[in-house]
Amino acid sequence: MKAIEKTPYVYGIPLLATLLWGSNFLVGKNMLHNLPPFTLTFMRWGFAFLILLPFIWKPLRENYKTYLALWKEILLMGFLGIGLFTGLVYWGMEHTSTVNASLLSSLTPIFIGVVAYFMLHERMNSNQLIGIVISLLGVFWIVSKGQISSLADMKLNSGDIVMLCSNLLMAIYSVMLRKTSDRLPGLIGFGLIVGAGVLTSFPMMLVEVSVRSVTLWEWSNLWSVMYLAIFPSVISFFCWSKSVHLLGPTKASPFMNLVPVFATIFAVLFLGEQVMTAQLIGGMFVLIGVYWSSRPKKGFIPIPEHSELPMQEVKL
User: 69: burial class by Cβ within 10 Å (0-12, 13-18, 19+)?
Assistant: First the structure.
């Protein structure tokens, strides 16, 4: 294991995970012309669950009573972290630029710290507080297009607001994962939560297709849905879990900051979006704030480098 860790190739694993998560903003944005948000959510995670099922079927069958006792927690986490979260992200992407969506989604670690403070009564250190302030300044800079002085008089983009709400949902989901990680470990926990997300997104999809047009049965659409199910959903999860195992959460977590970078590059190259100066400045503040809040404070005991924590947090 030590020999593997010393090779530079191991850093390609988290790099691939963040690249795939970044590509979701490109493919998802393009798919929204044919599939509305919650329909795309149901299709993406439905296919992903079918891919995961063979890998979790045996332990699920052997320990079904244990997992059945947790059905309320599984259902709630599936609803918050898969069904509603993904649907809101796609809904937000309909009403804001891909660049904005990816930059705002990178605020999730900040939201997790705040939610953990209220739900788990975890104290926030000075680095976290400073990071929150820096990141909020970045958010204000992005949504105001660099005109913070006029923020009070500005009508906020509905897509930006929805993206911020989705961050809150992901934060609640992530904190719930901390509380249930010992009972829902690794792949089996992820698979069950995905299944619950598919189940809870089905009613939302039915409501959506009754009022909006859907164009699914075209090969290009089916291939795109399959891409989202296989690469940003399943393979990225495997890559990220392997990254945490090989590098440890402390060394792996900074790679998350590359998701908006990749998403922005894809948006410029393939969607023809232009990056404004305000987005560059605001994005830098957001990423610096996230980095600063994740720095271990002197005097605190860091997480062991090779801790095998169950990293099930869903990213897009």
Answer: exposed
